[in-house]
Design goal:
The chain is α+β, with helices and mostly antiparallel strands. Helix content is 45%, strand content 19%. β9 and β10 (295-303) form a beta hairpin. The N and C termini lie far apart (49 Å).
């Protein structure tokens, strides 16, 4: 059972004991990501994620790495559009030391100017690597296009210009504004007991003083946009997207099932029609990105320039079919079982369980039991999926980007693509 405690300064601590495991996963979450950054700060959250492992008042970067290795643990972090997470996973008998290391890097990082200069080069290389990886870069371009004018359009990594401008003073100022205790959540899942865990983390976390945290979030207004980026590549990389339900929208279950049916697995319509039946693409899939106030549903593929129009016609054809109500109970049932399988199999990982209880608390303010989620998923009808598809597949929400050897005239207009 998930248990929750709120410290006096507002920091939330949630745990899920899983006594049959040998390990525990612990994450310190901050409800702050790239959408919370001002344009000149873009990339700040991701840079902090890197720098937090580069030395504290008590440990050098090498000592942090050696201590984690010496207890057989793993430690990492990630930044998204809405959150930043620092986490580790250790065996039960090393939980106290693993937690102490995690708290040390979160609370006592130095952001040393020399380390900062070295890590700046690493992040600049990471940005270049994404730009040299067409499938990843196409998704970056899609986000910039779909959310134009909104902080959600900003790349998580930042830009070379904004990363070059970061320094110790600006990082510390940002932390003081954006990492207030009301945005901090600590989650643990695995071989852990709530009261014992509280004793490990509360004394250090209670020293964090309340701040007046900034909030830069406002919902984007989606409109029809396209972007063509010519590049000397062998293939044309395409990403198409439209509006989708937010993470808090009850229609998220229908959206998840729609995604699976269209391009979420190997038996999906797009995979079968484009790859299996015609061999037009090695990769084609659909994806669903959900934020607290909005979502994006999209399709990605990469094809030869000569088969671009045929591929676009096939995608358009499949979109029209689902929009026009072509969905059987049998197909929907298969999609439900696929989602259940992924959901429940993932629940066997302590990392996934830690992430799950953290996101539930951040998004909903409570734990969503497995039974509740499965019940809501089972309730979805073919009519609800079709109704959602009709709402999502409107020309005014359409965004399309291409990267590769293609001209703008080769891409369809929103009206022609979806009608």
């Amino acid at each position: 059972m998930v248990q929750k405690t709120v410290l006096d300064n507002g920091i939330r601590i949630v745990t899920e004991p899983l006594p049959y495991l040998y390990s525990a996963s612990v994450g310190i979450w901050v409800d702050n990501g790239s959408r919370d950054e001002a344009p000149e700060e873009n990339g700040m959250s991701h840079f902090i994620e890197h720098m937090i492992f580069k030395g504290t008042r008590h440990r050098t970067a090498l000592e942090i790495a050696k201590e984690m290795d010496a207890i057989g643990g793993m430690s990492n972090a990630f930044t998204s559009k809405e959150q930043t997470c620092f986490y580790n996973r250790v065996l039960e008998n090393h939980l106290e030391q693993g937690v102490e290391i995690l708290l040390d890097i979160f609370l006592n990082s130095l952001f040393d100017p020399e380390e900062l200069e070295r890590e700046r080069l690493v992040v600049l290389q990471e940005i270049s690597m994404v730009e040299d990886t067409p499938d990843e870069y196409t998704h970056v371009l899609l986000g910039e296009t779909a959310y134009t004018g909104n902080p959600l359009a900003q790349p998580i990594l930042g830009t070379p210009e904004t990363v070059q401008a970061l320094n110790q003073e600006r990082i510390l100022d940002y932390l003081g504004r954006a990492y207030g205790p009301e945005k901090i959540l600590v989650a643990a899942a695995g071989k852990v007991e709530h009261e014992d865990f509280l004793k490990l983390v509360a004394p250090a976390l209670e020293t964090i003083r309340p701040l007046t945290s900034s909030n830069n979030r406002h919902s984007p207004i989606l409109s029809s946009r396209s972007k063509v980026v010519p590049k000397d590549l062998e293939q044309v990389h395409l990403a198409w997207a439209t509006w989708a339900p937010a993470a808090t929208d009850q229609r998220r279950y229908a959206g998840t099932l729609l995604n699976v049916i269209m391009g979420g697995n190997m038996s999906s319509r797009l995979f079968q029609e484009v790859r299996e039946k015609r061999g037009l693409a090695y990769t084609i899939y659909s994806f669903l990105s959900s934020y607290r106030d909005i979502g994006m549903w999209g399709i990605y593929t990469a094809v030869a320039k000569e088969t671009l129009q045929e591929t676009l016609q096939l995608i358009s054809q499949e979109l029209r079919k689902i929009k026009n109500g072509e969905l059987s109970s049998t197909e929907l049932t298969a999609a439900k079982e696929f989602v259940k399988g992924g959901f429940l199999l993932g629940a066997e990982s302590s990392d996934n369980r830690m992430t799950r209880i953290a996101k539930n608390e951040i998004t909903f303010g409570r734990d969503l039991p497995f039974e509740e989620i499965l019940e809501d998923l089972n309730k979805v009808t073919p009519e609800e999926v079709v109704a959602l598809a009709e709402e999502m597949l409107r020309p005014e929400h359409f965004s399309l980007v291409s990267l590769g050897p293609v001209e703008e005239e080769a891409l369809p207009s929103p009206v022609n693509f979806l009608s």
